[in-house]
Amino acid sequence: PIAFIDRVAEGVNCDTVMVNNREASYNAIDYLIKKGYRKIATVAGPMDRTTGMERLEGYIKAHKDNGIDIDEGMIRYGDFSLESGKKHTLDLIENTAMEAVFIANTDMATGAFQIIKEKKLKVPKDIAFVMFDDPVWTTIVTPNITAISQPVYTLGSTTADLLLKRIMEGRKYIDKEPVKVILEARLIIRGSA
C-alpha cells in the first residue's frame, strides 16, 4: 500500500480503469444525426478532466464524420454540477435554435431537464434530450431519457481487483508498467430523442 500511495503522491502513472468516453459520446451524437437533427447543442464537462474533454471530442468527431460543421455557439462548458446544467441549458434555450441537446453527466442533465420542464418545452417535440450516465430517474420521467449507460459495477470491481493485486505485489509494484483498462458504454435508446 505504501508503494501505491508513494507513486500517486509523486504523480507517477498508476493503473487506470475508465469508460471509452469518446466512442460513447460519438454514438449518441451519431444517433441524433441519423434521426435527422442538425442543430445539436451540448453542455460539456470541464476541459481539465479527461471525461469532459473526451466526451466533447466524441461530439465533435460525430459532427465531422457526418459532414456537419461545428457551431461553437452550440457548445457550453459546465463543471459537472446541477447548477451549471441549469445555467447553460437556459442560455442555450434563450440564445440558440437548438433542436437537440447532449448533456455530459448526470448532475448537469438533472439541472438541464428541470429547466426544460420549467420552460414548458416538450421532449422530444421541442428539444431532443440525450445524456451521459443512466441514473434511475431516466426511466421514471416522461418520456424516458435516451442515455449512455456506463458499466458501473465492472468499473468498480475492475478497479478493486487491480488495487488488490498491486497491494499484494508490494514493492514489486514500483517496477511494473501501469495497467490501463478501457470499458465500453452502451447507448440506451428511449423516448427523449
**Extended strand count:** 8
Mean pLDDT: 91
Distance between the termini: 47 Å
Radius of gyration: 19 Å
Identify the overall geometry: elongated
Approximate strand percentage: 15-25%
**How does the helix and strand content classify structurally?**
alpha/beta
Low-confidence stretches: 1-11
Tally of DSSP helical segments: 6
Task: Give helix and strand order, one letter per element, not per position.
Answer: HEHEHEHEHEEHEE
The biggest sheet, with number of strands, parallel, antiparallel or mixed sense and barrel status, is: 6 strands, mixed
What order do the strands of the largest sheet run in, or round the barrel if closed?
A: 3-2-4-5-6-8
What portion of residues is helical?
A: 40-55%
Written description of the protein model:
With 193 residues, the chain is an alpha/beta fold. 43% of the residues lie in helices and 17% in strands. The protein contains six helices and eight strands. The strands form two sheets. It has a six-stranded mixed sheet, sandwiched between helices. It has a two-stranded parallel sheet with strand order 1-7. The longest helix has 18 residues. It is elongated. The N terminus is likely disordered.
